[in-house]
Design a protein that fits this description.
- This protein is α/β, with parallel strands linked by helices.
- The protein folds into two domains: 140 residues, Rossmann fold (3-Layer(aba) Sandwich), CATH 3.40.50.1860; 110 residues, Rossmann fold (3-Layer(aba) Sandwich).
- Helices cover 44% and strands 17% of the residues.
- The protein is built from twelve helices and ten strands.
- The strands form two sheets. It has a six-stranded parallel beta sheet with strand order 4-3-1-2-9-10, with helices on both faces. The protein has a four-stranded parallel beta sheet with strand order 6-5-7-8.
- It is globular, with a radius of gyration of 17 Å.
- The protein starts with 5 loop residues before the first strand and ends in a 5-residue tail after the last strand.
- The protein binds D-glutamic acid.
- The site of D-glutamic acid has 17 residues, from helix 3.
């Protein structure tokens, strides 16, 4: 492994930029290529076979860019296609689910955890399996309206708060003391979710936990670098749309975006 690795991150769209933002914070002595499959999102409502096909395409594209390490930034792709991607690439890789589950298991005293995710992630029960393997009971909840609400920029809207109450209030009656944000978009709802979630429940963001794992896997890259990371972006739909939507998720300006057509 090089001293300053090139790390590839892929997601169904701009959501995985929340994972990239954490990587840039925790693993700054690295360069990055980010692939957003904006032409084919959302992955959250698609079949496992379709998601696996798309995820392998994205991973191969990033391998062609010469990456040293691969991060599946999309929870749905990780839940439904981790093993398929693992079998299809040669690059060392990590997904978001194991780190999220490990972090949740590490802090849950009650051994009882709530997981919020897309329908696809919930249907795969990937989080439940990862938590049960650690002796933790998991209640998974699909929150399909959260992704479009976040994309609409309604992270603090009263409608989003109402939707969150409808999804979550019953879950809060249980014994869980940890709630995992198991979707790339949910960190943008964190302030709202924190407000409506009982204080006894700790919120874990799988993006943060994943970046911590990458820092452990690439210790040289985790200490401050001599120069800022070079980040290149690839998107399968409009470059302009990616730039505009992406800046909200990344929290910084996006300049270098290239259009990619994986179908051709
Ligand atoms: N990136 C997806 C995830 O983390 C959410 C958006 C989608 O459904 O494609 O599950």
């Amino acid at each position: 492994m090089k001293q300053r690795p090139l790390i590839g991150v892929f997601d169904s769209g701009v959501g995985g930029l929340t994972v990239l933002a954490e990587l840039l914070r925790q693993v700054p002595n690295a360069d990055y290529v980010y692939f957003g499959d904006t032409a084919r999102l959302p992955y959250g409502s698609k079949s496992a076979a379709t998601v696996a096909k798309y995820a392998i395409g994205a991973a191969h594209y990033l391998e062609q860019q010469g990456i040293d390490f691969l991060v599946i930034g999309c929870n749905t792709a990780c839940a439904q296609a981790y093993d398929s991607v693992r079998a299809a690439v040669k690059t060392p890789m990590i997904g978001v689910i194991e780190p999220g589950a490990e972090a949740a298991a590490g802090v849950s005293r009650k051994k009882d955890v709530i997981v919020l995710a897309t329908e696809g992630t919930v249907n795969s029960h990937a989080y439940r399996k990862a938590l049960e393997a650690r002796g933790i009971k998991a209640e998974e909840k699909a929150c399909p309206l959260f992704v479009p609400l976040v994309e609409e920029g309604w992270g603090e809207h009263s409608v989003t708060e109402q939707v969150a109450h409808i999804y979550l209030d019953d879950l809060f009656k249980g014994a869980a003391d940890v709630m995992v944000l198991g979707c790339t978009h949910y960190p943008l709802l964190r302030p709202l979710l924190r407000r409506i979630t009982p204080e006894r429940i700790q919120i874990i963001d799988s993006a943060e936990s994943t970046a911590r794992k990458v820092a452990e896997a690439l210790p040289h890259a985790a200490s401050g670098g001599v120069s800022a990371p070079d980040v290149r972006f690839f998107a399968t739909d409009s470059v302009e749309k990616f730039r505009r939507a992406g800046e909200k998720f990344l929290g910084q300006r996006i300049v270098d975006v290239t259009h990619v057509d994986l179908e051709s």
